[in-house]
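Researcher: Checking consistency across runs. Here is Retrotransposon hot spot (RHS) protein2 again:
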Amino acid sequence: MMRVWYIIQRKLNAWWVEKTESTPPTHIIIGIPGTGKSCGVGSFLLHSLLHFHEGMLDVVVYFTDAKAYLIYNKKGNEEGRVVLYKRKDATNVIEEMRLKKRGHIIFDINSPKETLPYETQYLGWGITTLNTPDTYYYKHWGKDYFSWNVILNCDDVRDIKAFVAWKKLSLFPNYTTLDENARAKVKEELEDEWRLVERRVDFVGPLPRYVFSNGAGRREAAVIRYLSSLSCNRRDGYDMMMGKYFEWKGNHFTESLIKIVRERSRYGNLESYHCRPLSVAIGNMILCTLFADVAESMSSHEFMMEYGKVGAYSLKTRALVSLLFPRVFCVVTKHLNYLRRLGETEDKRSILKDMTPQQFQIFEQKFLPEAGQNAIGNCKYKVLYRSLEESKLFVDGFFFVEDCSRRVADMRDGFPQLGVASKTIVLIQITDNYRKEASVSELQEFMTNIARYFSDWDTFSRNMAWEMIYVNAIYGGVIKTRQRCVNNNTADAEQQTEETQVFWDGIDQYQITFDNKIQKELIIAYHEERKYRDAPAFTRKRGHE
C-alpha cells in the first residue's frame, strides 16, 4: 500500500510541484479481486491525496459504482465538503473546473459493466485507476495516453498474521499490565484465532476479503467446484502445469485459483507480472488434477497421438513433480525394479522402499546455479534439485534422503562416530530409450559440478550411498539391464577413468516403467492427493521470482 503511494507521490511532485513532467500522472493499479484495492488501497490513496503537499489539491474525485464523489479540500474560507454526482454529471463538472482548480481522479473499477470514461484522460488532472488484471477495462488508454502500471501483490502471510495480532491486542490496550494468567488467556485466544485464519489462508490464499469474512466457506466451495471441472482440455490451467506463462483470463475460474506476482521489466521501472496458484494447496490440486487427466489420456494412448512431443515433456514433468507428492511417490517406489550387477543373484532394496509417506516428503524444488553463479548453499534433505541447463546435466534431477533406521559409521571430523543415520543421494533419469549409458566424461563433469553447487559437498558426501532411478515411458524403449559407464574419450587418463568406473559400479540402479497398470494407480493417487494440503513450495526458475 505504501509502495503504491510512494510511486504516485513522486509523479505528483514532478507534475504539480517541480513541474518537470509534460503530462499529468496516470497510474493503473492492478490487483486481483479480494486483495483490498477498494477498502485498503483506494481509501488510503484518497486520504493521502487530500493531504498531499499540505493540501495542495483542491479536489479529489472518486468514481465507483456508476457514481462519483467530489471531495473538496478546505481552502481559506471554503469548508471541506463531499458532493455526490451521477457519473456523466461528474464528468461535466470536472470539465468546467479543470482549469481553475488542481485535482486528481480515482477510478475504482469493481463491476464487469464498468469501463473508464474515455474523455477523462484529457482533462489535465492526474488519474489513478484500480483494476483487476483484465485489460478489457483499460486497454484503450494504452493506445492514446501514456500510463504507468503498478502491480499490487497479495498480502504476505506475515502481514495477515500481524493484522490478526493487532486486531486482538487492540482490545487490550493495557495488555502489558495484565497479570500472568490474563495474558496467557489472551495469548491462547489469539493463537486459536490465528489457527482459524491460517487454515483459510492455506486453502483460499492470502486474500483479506475471504480470510476475514463469513464468506470463507463459500469461497472454499467455489475453489473445489472450479478445480473439479478442470481437465487437460481446458487451457486455463494446462499451460501453467507445463511451466509456461499463464495469461490472466477475466473469469471466475481464474479469480478463484490464480494470483499475480509482480516482476520488474528489463526496461527501466516498468512493471509486469506472472501468474501463480493462489495457495500451495491450490497449486497442489491443479497439478494433481491435470496430471491425473494426462495419465488417463496416456494410458489409452490418446495423449501421445494428439500431443506428440508434449507427451514426452509431460512424462518428464510428471515424473519429477510426482516426487513432490508423498502419496503419488509411493506408487513410484512400490514398482521399482532393481538392475543387478554382473554376478548378483539377489535384488537390493532401495532406501525409498523403507520410508513411509510421512517420512518421505520433499518440501520444495530448487534450480541449481548456472555456470559462473555462486553455490546454492548447503546440501538439504528432501529438496528436489533440478538444473536450468538440462542438456548439460547428467541426470534430470536428484535429492538427498536420510534413513534413521539404517546406521553407518561416520568419519566426520577425522574420527568414527557410530550410529549416524544413513544418507543417500537419489538420481533421477527420465528416458524413452531401452539403453541410457553414461560416459566417463559426463560422470566426471557431473561430480565436478555438484561439488560446485553446494558449499558443504566435501563434508556432506562422505559415506553417502548413491542410487539411480531410470523412468521409462510406455511408448518407448524399456531398460531391463544395468547400465554401463563407457569411455568415449581415449584421451582420458587411465587412472582417472578407472576411478570413475569404480565409482559408477558402486551406484545401485533401479528402473520403473509408466505402463498402463502404474498409470491407473497414479490416477487414483493424484485424485487422492488433492484431499491434502501438505503440498511443497514450487520455486520458479531464477530470474522469474
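Researcher: Does this match what you'd expect to see?
Model: One thing to look at in this run: The chain has four domains: 2-151, 157-213, 217-278, 308-538.
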